[in-house]
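Dear colleagues,

As part of the handover before I leave the project, I'm documenting each prediction I ran so the next person doesn't have to rerun anything. This entry is a single chain, and its sequence is reproduced below.
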Amino acid sequence: MANNNYNPDVLNCIANLSNDEVFTPPELANKMLDLLPQELFKSSKTTFLDPFTKSGVFLREIVKRLDRGLADEIPDRQKRVDHILHNQVFGIACTELTSLLARRSVYCSKTANGKYCISKFETQEGNILYKNIKHTWVNGKCKYCGASQSVYDRGSEAEQYAYMFIHTDNPKQFFKNMKFDVIIGNPPYQLSDGGNSASAKPLYHLFVEQSIKIQPKFICAIIPARWYAGGKGLDEFRSKMLSDKRICNIVDYPNSADCFNGVNIAGGVCYFLWAINEYGECIVTNVKGEKHANLEKRNLDEFSVFVRDNIAVHIVRKVMSHKEKNMDTVVASRNAFNIASNERGHKNKKASDYILLSSEGVSYIDSKEIFDRDSLINKYKVIVTYAMSGGNKPGGDGKYQILSSLMVLAPKNVCTETYLIIDSFNQKGYAEYCCTYLKTMFVRFLLLQALTSIHITKNVFQFVPLQDFSHPWTDEMLYKKYGLTGEEIAFIESMIRPME
């Protein structure tokens, strides 16, 4: 017999059109609403805006909470719903399709003045707006979002993806300069500049910055966590976010599938609460799987890079408390010999030649073509490939290797900029013992905390303490030296695979 009690929420069943605009499940929307002070839902004066609404799930769940919270103040149900929908809940849709979907979710009708609308408006839009506006082209790019004119300068009938909220200098104009108490939602994440998603331009930070311009009491948004690392137009945004003491909560999901079923967003996602009257430390919650959550109150700008995991923060603090010189002070800057990565040298050795190591193996290069910037040619050099092993993604076992092609380069040997020189020594044994140190899971875990791209750079070694290389090193020696607990050791070894 069929189970007639099964009545799924339709907003749980909507498939995402792409990773650019991800629909928010109702359960996740409510977790975000739970971050807000709940007395907001007991006031008939609180105003809410979702300026990047898609399914309308945030507005719908807000209406439900206000309906319960205002039951005593406005006992008549219809009057209460009318007041909420006309005076408290507002949205700006991302596309024409999502405007219809959002109105259907909130008003029970795709038009706000339709026959089945639960609260009649004079216009079809009601308080959920959408206009198919155009980009503003300057030198082939949109001055607001950076979209390529060659890709998005379409006919008037085609979707422009010129999102209303960020394509204006005055975001308050849409609702007659209303003052909003809460801005909440899930903005579009990126805009393709051609068809290759790898070249897509991030957009979500523009929505956050525009929300802050309005200066509501609270902002709560879920966005990709790639901003932690910066890069591709996000460096300034990252700097502002980490130094903004009004961010009082961050809930971090390293695996996006833990909150968006079936969606893979590289680097994971996070949602945050920004409160205009809060100023201080931020509560960071790491969520891994359904049951594991780790919470810590800390300063987001404690270090020059954002250390994402709370357990990792404790490990870095222990290491840094020793106040030792760190390895970023000895790592050579990129391309120490001024030899391009595509240089292949020649096969036949001449008297004035040095041995050249490139990504294709060993050859020879004339000494006159080398610029020995740091006087390294006559030393034993510890080198690694500039690109991170695995491309900043864990392997099938869920663990990272970080370093690859770790080796000692002998005197009179040089390398292209494919390699980074970690340290140099007059004696071969010291160089080999340095390699034993770099192979430890301890060191590679510390490197992972500072990585902001797939590249191993001098700055990545800022948490790695410099050691005495007159003897070899093991993880056990390092765990003991820095007083790591069993939990901290297990955490490191759960993330980093042994290196042969």
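The chain is about 25% helix and 20% strand. Residues 56 and 105 are 6 Å apart (CA to CA).

All the best with the project,
I.
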